[in-house]
Amino acid sequence: MYGCQKPYSGAGTSFTLIVVLFILLVIVGASFYA
Q: What parts of the sequence cross the membrane (predicted)?
């Protein structure tokens, strides 16, 4: 997923940033409710 280069690098990086923030939020929430 991270290895492939996309033509729209701007949208790709913003989408990756949103995904990373969402994953971090899920990890923090899981550790909080655990």
A: 12-33
pTM exceeding 0.85: no
Phi, psi of 30 (to 5 degrees): -65, -40
Delimit the domains of the chain by residue range.
Answer: 9-34
Q: Are 6 and 12 in contact (CB under 8 A)?
A: yes
Q: Which residues of 1-29 are buried (b: 16+ CB within 10 A; e: fewer)?
A: eeeeeeeeeeeeeeeeeeeeeeeeeeeee
